[in-house]
Specification:
The chain is α+β, with helices and mostly antiparallel strands. It is built from 14 helices and 16 strands. The strands form 3 sheets. Strands 1-2-3-6-5-4 form a 6-stranded antiparallel beta barrel. A 6-stranded antiparallel barrel has the order 7-8-9-12-11-10. Strands 13-16-15-14 form a 4-stranded parallel β-sheet, with helices on both faces. A hairpin with a 4-residue loop joins strand 2 and strand 3. Helix 8 packs parallel to helix 9 and helix 12 packs antiparallel against helix 13. The longest helix has 42 residues. It is flat and about 95 Å long.
Length: 578
């Protein structure tokens, strides 16, 4: 762990290791509250990346640095569980790191660092990010699945593979039977609980300046709009969209005029609450009296961007900056966004006031096709324009989802299935039937690939018309994936049976190797062994034929006749035969 100079180990004075932490400055360490145990606990902190382990430094919880674990409200799960430690003696500042607010998007590759038992110098695990909960925590799926975080990882850093940035800390693990998962508190959620560490987070705010007017927040008794009631219907609509879910639309639009305080405040509160920009204190103060259903979950918004006066290239650069993407030399920011899954939730304001409205609209279409859900905030209530923009984004979103599903199907048919058919052959039912069905379904799905490109060129259907062609692609690809997966399952079972028979043959033949090879019986036995072995190691293996050959070899090995009966009239499993 010498390269991870910010990694620290936390232990009881003269006692066991409690967990890990991240050095944020010469004298501040971020970790989990449950690692510390109590707010007045005495701790020892050791720099793991200091070559030979550096001397331990006494530490205590910093002022306002204690946010203990609390059970949630039954809807979103546990909250809190972060702590900020102050070291008694400052350490070299160059060992410290900064935190970054990269969106914790699904399947993003990460590394976890911690101190399991007997790993004094630290240990590294690989994983991919999974789903987010309304508590701001993010699931990490270990790779390989059995390599789950264990005790000693809590408080350790989660590092993004692509950018090598620290994007959060490990908080807990889950293990039930074959299920394995770890959880992290991303940087945005850490800031929600510990806003005082904001200057250790150099990345830009999730919300663009000017996205929502500050006028709505400055209302007081002298303001002429003080008696106006906020638009609760807008707050409900915003929360419904941001909360997501299986039935949530991929695109929606609302109108919030720049001088309409009754709608500016719900917009401001929704994007700040959803992005985690509000500290825990401010969130409690501002949303204490919020009507039910008007508070979106923390982490449900990845970026609120104002495109007023911006070009297409400037918007692409802003999204890349949020994702931590750096274009290759000579490449553009938009090109860097292509080909990457982007399961983000965006709020975009001012599409009707962009410097390049058509270009920005096309960029948003590209993002939708890559998996972005988008809330469009219009300044003017032009209903036909809003409906057209929303329909275009929904079309591109569903087109991209269909294209990815079709690509998954083609990968199964072109790579995964042939990899199995090179190992074993399927002559008998039900494997033969499953393979035939898979071939027909794969051919039907392959024929649809060109339809994606044609649909992208044609654009969304007119308002009121369904997207039947996209649904046809989805249905065909879904059926093909099911059939291909079934065939692969049958072939995998044959591969497993082949491997079992290989072991059985060698185990049975081992005692026979020392027999007199000059006798006719021994030669016959050797011939039958070679026949079975050749069938088992020939690719593709005919498993039923190999199984029959092994049966003949075993019968010969145990002195049975051609009918499988020994001299006492018993068959190969020891039962009497007529």
């Amino acid at each position: 762990m010498a390269t991870e100079r910010w990694l620290v180990r936390i232990r009881q004075p003269g006692g066991p290791v409690l967990g890990a932490g991240v050095l944020l400055s010469a004298d501040l360490v971020l970790t989990c509250a449950h690692v510390v145990g109590e707010p007045d606990a005495s701790l020892m902190v050791e720099l793991a990346g200091a070559g030979a382990m550096a001397d331990a430094v006494p530490a205590r919880v910093a002022e306002d640095g204690w946010v203990p674990h609390r059970e949630g409200d039954g809807l979103w799960g546990p909250v809190g569980d972060v702590a900020l430690l102050r070291l008694r003696w400052p350490q070299p500042a160059e060992r410290a790191t900064t935190l970054h607010r990269l969106p914790p998007t699904r399947r993003r590759a990460v590394r976890l660092y911690g101190f399991p038992v007997d790993a004094d110098r630290g240990f590294e695990l690989d994983g991919r990010l999974g789903g987010r909960g309304g508590d701001g925590r993010v699931q990490i799926k270990p790779e390989p699945p059995e390599a789950n975080a264990v005790e000693g990882f809590s408080g350790g850093a989660v590092v993004d593979d692509e950018t090598d940035r620290v994007i959060g800390i490990v908080v807990s693990r889950y293990r039930l039977g074959a299920l394995r998962a770890s959880f992290m508190i991303p940087t945005g959620t850490v800031l929600h609980y510990l806003p005082q560490i904001r200057h250790f987070v150099p990345s830009e705010s999730v919300i663009d300046r000017g996205f929502a007017s500050d006028r709505a927040l400055r209302r007081d008794s002298g303001n002429e709009h003080a008696e106006e009631k906020e638009d609760e219907g807008l707050a409900l609509s915003l929360t419904d969209f941001l909360s997501g879910g299986e039935a949530a639309p991929p695109a929606a639009s609302v109108v919030v005029g720049p001088d309409d305080d009754t709608r500016e405040l719900p917009l401001w509160l929704a994007v700040n609450a959803a992005s985690g920009e509000l500290s825990a204190h401010d969130r409690a103060a501002l949303l204490a009296d919020a009507p039910p259903g008007t508070v979106p979950p923390i982490g449900s918004l990845d970026l609120a961007i104002s495109v007023t006066g911006r070009t297409r290239a400037e918007v692409a650069e802003r999204v890349c900056g949020r994702m931590g993407f750096v274009p290759a030399p000579g490449d553009t920011f938009e090109a860097r966004l292509r080909g990457n899954p982007l399961p983000l939730t965006l709020a975009v304001r001012g599409v009707d006031r962009a410097r390049e409205p058509a270009g920005v609209g096309e960029l948003l279409g590209l993002l939708a096709e890559q998996g972005c859900r988008t809330l469009l905030v219009f300044d003017e209530d032009d209903e036909p324009a809003r409906r057209a923009a929303t329909a275009a984004l929904e079309f591109r979103f569903r087109l991209g989802a269909a294209d990815r599903l079709l690509n998954d199907c083609l990968a199964l048919g072109r790579h995964d299935l042939p990899a199995r058919t090179r190992r074993v052959t399927a002559r008998a039912q039900p494997a033969r039937g499953a393979l035939d069905r898979a071939g027909k379904s794969f051919a039907a799905a392959s024929a649809l690939k060109h339809r994606i490109a044609a649909l992208r060129t044609q654009g969304p259907p007119p308002p009121g018309r369904s997207m039947d062609e996209i649904e046809e692609v989805v249905a065909t690809a879904t059926t093909a994936i099911a059939d291909l997966s079934a065939a692969i399952g049958h072939l995998d079972a044959l591969v497993a049976r082949r491997n079992e028979l290989r072991g059985r043959l060698e185990a049975a033949h081992a005692p026979a190797r020392g027999r007199d090879s000059a006798s006719r019986a021994a030669l016959d036995l050797s011939d039958r062994y070679c026949e079975a072995r050749d069938l088992l190691w020939h690719a593709p293996c005919d498993v039923p034929a190999a199984e029959a050959a092994i049966r003949r070899y075993l019968d010969a090995l145990h002195g049975r006749d051609s009918d499988g009966r020994d001299s006492h009239g018993k068959d190969s499993d020891g039962r009497d035969r007529p």
